[in-house]
Amino acid sequence: MSENLLDINHLKTHFFSDEGVVRAVDGVSISIKKGETVGIVGESGCGKSVTSLSVMRLLKDTPGKIVDGTIEFDGKNLLDVSEGEMRAIRGNDIAMIFQEPMTSLNPVFKIGKQIQEAVELHLKYDKKKARQHVIDMLDSVGIPRANEIVDEYPHQLSGGMRQRVMIAMAMACKPKLLIADEPTTALDVTIQAQILELMKKLKEEEETAIMLITHDLGVVAEMCDRVVVMYAGKVVEEASVYDLFDNPQHPYTKGLLASVPKMRQNVKRLGSIQGNVPSPDDLPVGCKFAPRCPAAMTICWEKEPELEDHKQGRCRCWLYDSELVKEV
Amino acid sequence: MGTPLLEVKELKKHFPLNKGWFGRQTGSVKAVDGVSFVINEGETLGLVGESGCGKSTTGRMIMSLLKPTDGQIWFKGQEISKLKDDEVRDLRKDFQMVFQDPYASLNPRMKVKDIVAEPLIIHGEKDKGVIQNRVDELMKTVGLNAFQADRYPHEFSGGQRQRIGIARALAVKPKLIIADEPVSALDVSIQSQILNLLQDLQEEMGLTYLFIAHDLSVVEHISDRIGVMYLGRLVEVADKDSLYDEPLHPYTQALISAVPVPNPRLKRERIILKGDIPSPANPPTGCPFHTRCPKAMDICKTKVPVMREAREGHYTACHLYES
Amino acid sequence: MVGQPEPAVPKNDPKGPRVDVKDEKKKVKTPFSEFWKKFKKQRLALFAGIFIVLLLILAAIGPYITPYGSEEFDYDNILVGPSLAHWAGTDAYGRDIFSRIIAGTRISLFVGLCSVLLGATAGTILGLISGFYGKWLDSLIMRMCDVMFAFPGILLAIGIIAVLGPGLGNVIIAVSIFSVPIFARIVRSTTLAVKATLFVEATRSLGATNRRLIWKHIFPGTTSSIIVYFTMRIGTAILIAASLSFLGLGAQPPTPEWGAMLSSGRDYLNTAPHVTFFPGMAIFVTVLAFNLLGDGLRDALDPKIKD
């Protein structure tokens, strides 16, 4: 297991409220190797963001609690380390980029100051060296006039620029793992292209592993080596990016791929998945996807399938269950 | 072909910027700056562009939600942009809008049946039985159950709410539907449901769509013809095959090449544009795109290019195609 | 018919449309049921609400159940302290203070409710006009409110009484006038917020008239803040009305108004403190109850505060 940089094992993160328990993440196992980009794909409420917050242990201010599982990072179980140690890991070894850059930048501090603080803290640089490092970082993410921008405030920048600043901030301490939660969703297409290019470049130069959380299958195809598909708090399929797009196994993955309009394909009518995205507080008993599945069988309504190894990855579906297949 | 259903001529919308003492006007945001296009009956015109390009403002002017600063809007051979409020009200039967945010576009304090019935009541229907029947019928048309009409919007998912919004738009049997980013707030699997529904409705009722979106794949899928906007201007209009197979304007080329394609085996040469979109309060002189254009020439900095037919049925506003 | 039926029924599901059946039986969640769910968690506010309901009942039937008449003199028992016969003692004329407080409940609640009702109605209309139409009407209404805000509340009320003359009716008018700008401002700001929502724009795009927009969409959107302030202002109004009566500008003796009772007990503060203590307590507890209820309502009605 030591070859993996990050090993999420059977993670369960539940949210507690008066109305009951919401199993936002319910037994998720994901591993990421050094320098690898793993995409986590799913629709709203599938638990992909909660998984990333659990890794960062950023659930403090929410009713969410990690109730089971381990998160091994670099040989350490992140769920066992103290809050102080975790703070040192955050930003230093693991960095995170959020969807909305404005909410994660402090509006009252100058941009340079916000990054510099982390650099001084984590890399133990002195003030002057840290400032130069910050300017270099801003420069490397393609921010023009970096030596002036360091002294500006976040609101003076455009959305694309802010996201670059976020990336510079995340990469400033040379993290081993970058968690990017919908990093380009709020951006325009041409700006998104710039940011994706930038992330690719950084990944190649610094060998950073990336956990890319997104709903955009186009971004996944472009960026990722491996893809994990989540549905209703569980992993339903995992495969290399080529296998997943060439030969999706799980009916949900198939439906998802068919739903996306593809340019220049001239499909008259899109495929679609019937029904609605389930709400995590009201899930069916058997397979969580059964109510929407075009291939649902009797067993799907009664018993939840396990995530089983499969010739090209892992898949959670009765259609590929070794014993059931034998019987037929 | 006859007269088009809708024609927009040199439409402009400038929002005044008030600054300084006594709210003096110090400038204006040129949200839409001279846009012309036609929509024929039964077709779908896609309007695509990035944030701040004026595509939504254009849609709102056609809906008479905003008064144009200048320009004309013709509907079935009648000029409608100068009509009085009362006259506009009658016209609204023919125009309806579907909004982007299905959460904010429905009044949370009203039952779904009252929301769907509202356009009927506004346009003078008083018979409760007629209204009830029409609401039931509309709910079925958009794929919802009639019993759900007694609920409030917050009990529905995003996709279902968008269906409610569509039912409301259909209530008075409009001819033209302006869909402003109708699927961009929805999950992928729900997006395709709504797109399919819109297509089915068009076929069944002979509707005409103005489909406004930023997602090029979605626009390509649903439209017959597509207009590309940049900084308040149309830079290219063509039917979709011609536009996607042979984009003429450098902006369209960059835009199309920037779209991430859900196919990992497809490695494309990508045109990465430099810099950000300029502010519409302070647009560049000449061609609005020249600051980011990889093919900019000297003339682009000074002269605004005129929209002309560069190929048959394929219009673009770019100095590269001026003979 | 186009469009897929929904919720969908899986074709090869032997058990039929489970989701569908369950969905149909689900209780409809009305805005009220949502409000009640949140409100009943607020113990203190709930308690205050029950207390106010009891007060209202008391105001209605009070005079029929009091042990003594409110103007029943008994010169044999003047300024008697609390006892079994007189739970709150008697005043300088031997009148039973407990009975008078109960009789006063009706007056205080009536003054409070009436004045706030009048003020809220006028203020709401002004606020809706101001927020919806904007421009010079907005400036005019808001500047007028600013002028009224420049006076301390009680001084304004005294000024109005000075013009109209003393008496309970005029107290109601005075208090309602000084409630107007508060409601106008609150309703205006909510109107602005609701007016900017997408659903108002959507309704406008359907061709709705301004009148329909205001009464069907914007006014219902402002009701929650109106209810909250309405409740809180009743407390304040009761307090102001009592103060005016205390100063001799409101209810005149022998009316059993709490403020007037307080005022008449002033001279015996050292010898018979119960004469002022009990009416004072009545004012205090009532005002507190309305404020607590208002706080609770705000928390339950505010969509931003969850659970």
From TrEMBL, chain A:
GO terms for molecular function: ATP binding; ATP hydrolysis activity. CDD domains: ABC_NikE_OppD_transporters. It is found in: Cell membrane. Keywords: ATP-binding, Cell membrane, Membrane, Nucleotide-binding, Transport. SUPFAM superfamilies: P-loop containing nucleoside triphosphate hydrolases. GO terms for cellular component: plasma membrane. SMART domains: AAA (SM00382). Residues 6-257 form the ABC transporter domain. Gene3D superfamilies: P-loop containing nucleotide triphosphate hydrolases. Pfam families: ABC_tran, oligo_HPY. InterPro entries: AAA+_ATPase, ABC_Ni/Peptide_Import, ABC_transporter-like_ATP-bd, ABC_transporter-like_CS, Oligopep_ABC_C, P-loop_NTPase. It is a peripheral membrane protein. Belongs to the ABC transporter superfamily. NCBIfam families: oligo_HPY. This is ABC transporter ATP-binding protein. It comes from Exobacillus caeni.
Automatic annotation (TrEMBL), chain B:
InterPro entries: AAA+_ATPase, ABC_transp_ATP-bind, ABC_transporter-like_ATP-bd, ABC_transporter-like_CS, Oligopep_ABC_C, P-loop_NTPase. Residues 6-256 form the ABC transporter domain. Belongs to the ABC transporter superfamily. CDD domains: ABC_NikE_OppD_transporters (cd03257). Keywords: ATP-binding, Nucleotide-binding, Transport. It comes from Exobacillus caeni. GO terms for biological process: peptide transport; transmembrane transport. It comes from the Bacteria. This is Dipeptide ABC transporter ATP-binding protein. GO terms for molecular function: ATP binding; ATP hydrolysis activity. The keyword S-adenosyl-L-methionine does not apply. NCBIfam families: oligo_HPY (TIGR01727), PRK11308.1 (NF008453).
From TrEMBL, chain C:
Residues 105-294 form the ABC transmembrane type-1 domain. The keyword Membrane applies. It is a multi-pass membrane protein. GO terms for molecular function: dipeptide transmembrane transporter activity. Residues 12-23 have a biased composition (Basic and acidic residues). Residues 1-23 are annotated as: Disordered. The chain crosses the membrane at residues 44-65, 107-133, 145-165, 171-187, 226-251, 271-294. It is found in: Cell membrane. Keywords: Cell membrane, Membrane, Transmembrane, Transmembrane helix, Transport. Its main location: membrane. Signal peptide: none annotated. It holds the Pfam family BPD_transp_1. One of its GO terms (cellular component) is plasma membrane. The keyword Zinc-finger does not apply. InterPro entries: BP-dependent_transpt_permease, MetI-like, MetI-like_sf, OppC_N. Belongs to the binding-protein-dependent transport system permease family. Part of the ABC transporter complex GsiABCD involved in glutathione import. Probably responsible for the translocation of the substrate across the membrane. This is Glutathione transport system permease protein GsiD.
